[in-house]
Write a structure and sequence with these properties.
Layout lengths: L3 H4 L4 H8 L1 H20 L3 H5 L8 H4 L7 H12 L13 E6 L6 E6 L1 H22 L9 E4 L4 E2 L8 E3 L1 H7 L9 E2 L2 H4 L4 H12 L4 E6 L1 H15 L4 H4 L5 E4 L5 H10 L6 E8 L2 E5 L8 E3 L5 E7 L11 E2 L8 E8 L6 E12 L2 E8 L13 H15 L2 E10 L8 E10 L4 H15 L1 H7 L9 E4 L4 H8 L17 H10 L1
Parallel strand pairs: 1-5, 3-6, 3-7, 7-8, 8-9, 18-19
Antiparallel strand pairs: 1-2, 4-5, 9-10, 10-11, 11-16, 12-13, 12-14, 14-15, 15-16, 17-18
Amino acid sequence: MNITKLVRPFFSSRLRAIDSYTSQAEAIQHKVFRHLIREAASTEWGREYDYEHIKSYQDFQRVPIQTYEEVKGYVDRMRQGEKDVLWPGKVNWYAKSSGTTNDKSKFIPVSKAGLHNIHYAGGRDAVALYLAQNPHSRMFSGKGLILGGSHDPDCYVKNSSASDLSAILIEHINPLVNLYRIPEKKIALLNDFEKKREQIARSAMNARVTNISGVPSWMLAVLKRILELKGTDNLTEVWPDLEVFFHGGVAFTPYSAQYKQLIPSDRMHYLETYNASEGFFGLQNDWTDPAMLLMIDYDVFYEFIPMDEWEKEQPTPVPLSGVETNQNYAMVISTACGLWRYMIGDTVKFTSKTPYKFIISGRTKHYINAFGEELMIDNAEKGLAVACAETGAQVSEYTAAPVFMDADAKCRHQWLIEFAVRPDSVAHFGEALDRALQEINSDYEAKRYKNMTLQPPEIMVARQGLFHDWLKAKGKLGGQHKVPRLSNSREYMDEIITMNH
């Protein structure tokens, strides 16, 4: 039964609200700001920084910029059951995220307000914006395959539970949504990804699936297993009504060719989402434009640190109204989950201010700037796309790091790449990548001038399954775990190279 036409009217008022982003962005963000300050004024944090007397953004600037290390003590107390610390009441759920310098994992608070007004709001709007773009959609004529992480009660803290964010969302989702999603909850929340992949594949392979949602790398592993079980290399034969993939977590570019090969359908659409453990921030509202719309009326107040301020001891953030297009910014958020002026670790670049649209350009820690080249993930993705197009290659996974000085006193970037389809020549691929990066990034080009600072990049071919094996060895298969694309040190690279032999 196709109820898509019946569902559409329920999104009309929401689409009108999103339309107002174009002309009322600053007013919308100010309203969010006032709401967050008012709600948190009676918390321990609010009293410490005198939220009662914060009347303007200028007043708010007395609150210090935070990293996880600065708020960890507060979060630990909240996990022990203390109330009214960073956000009113008791917070029971914590999204388990990749670790910091001092800890294996971060535990990001997920309050009831944040769950509904940030995370679920993003899922609702993803559907609303997709249906607005596709008047012929039959999305609700079948089911959605939602690939999430594991739910694992935090055995070390009695008063809270910690899981991948996606597991928290599945655990508390409206029961009506379960009528239109697979797999069943007990499969979706399994810890062992390899066991989960098998059970999801077997439960979904004969279902009528119209939409899929998840991290591209992990979804690809599930889809390939389904194709193996069905004895075909064409997913359209398995799910003829499949029409959209809502993806996020990692850049889609390295996987695009593989998906289009597996799903050779003109009716298939791909929409990027920017949802993280800390919140839901962006949605692609036009599938012809890779930039995402900044979702400004959730319970998130945004600030942005220009990257030329990043290394300063006291960087100066700007509110949304202060950003410029085509500049890299580190994103800072304040949310209804109790994160205040919190550096999420991502960098973004705005492509438009009417409305505010952006791309994720990289990570504040995942970049290479060993020699002044300032290579961001966005540069790497674009360069790899050019090299793939020129050599017929397809990239499954990759990581890159600097070689600071070899036996011949030469410096370079070292790329370890697992190919789904090998290039016509690895040397040709390296030349194409190098040339593209010089065209994209003027700092990289300057450092490559006459090989004076940087030598040509070194391309190393990874064996099949290398990155899967490395993540498995780290206990990070599935969920929101991802391969670090760029690193300014050799910590990850040396570990993975050791496994490659």
